[in-house]
Design brief:
By secondary structure, the chain is an all-beta fold. It has no helices and 13 strands. This is F-box associated beta-propeller type 1 domain-containing protein.
């Protein structure tokens, strides 16, 4: 049964810094049954220790909290203008360059919604090593992660995790 409830979202804010890539992800922790809103963003100018930040709103607690990204996302920036994919209990984003733009060094940022831990992995073998991030797509396909690459000849290479 789905119930309707309005929750006001008020992320913490610092007017001095600029946030780019501020799209949210929404998912359900299948271990606890709790719904969470995830906010992963790049911040400019970059802080001394990192430029990618994450905040989580557990809809039961109704409080925002920061997730430590200082070691797991060090030197990794979120690719701008993409929506995260939620599959297998994790969110998936692609990496970009320091400005959040597509790069040929693209990797997958994976965030486990239950443990709230990040890891960065290479793109799957179906994606060319030097593929630019704007040619790679991530989505949920029947509850599983789907990663695709649009090739120069307009052919599409797809991997469905499962």
């Amino acid at each position: 049964m789905v119930s309707e409830q309005l929750v006001e979202v008020d992320p913490s804010g610092d007017p001095v810094r600029c946030r780019s890539f501020t799209q949210f992800g929404f998912g359900k922790d299948t271990v606890t049954g709790r719904y969470k809103l995830i906010w992963l963003y790049n911040e400019y100018p970059a802080a001394a220790t990192r430029s990618t930040f994450c905040e989580v709103l557990d809809l039961e607690d109704k409080k925002w909290r920061f997730v430590d990204t200082s070691t797991s996302l060090l030197d990794h920036h979120v690719l701008n203008e993409q929506r995260p994919a939620f599959a297998n209990g994790s969110f998936y984003w692609l990496t970009g360059d320091e400005g959040g733009f597509p790069t040929t060094q693209t990797k997958l940022i994976v965030f486990d919604i239950h443990t709230e831990v990040f890891r960065v992995t290479p793109t799957p073998p179906c994606v060319d090593v030097d593929a630019c991030g704007d040619k790679i797509g991530v989505c949920n396909l029947d509850g599983r992660l789907c990663v695709s690459e649009l090739k120069g000849d307009c052919k599409l290479r797809v991997l469905v995790d499962g």
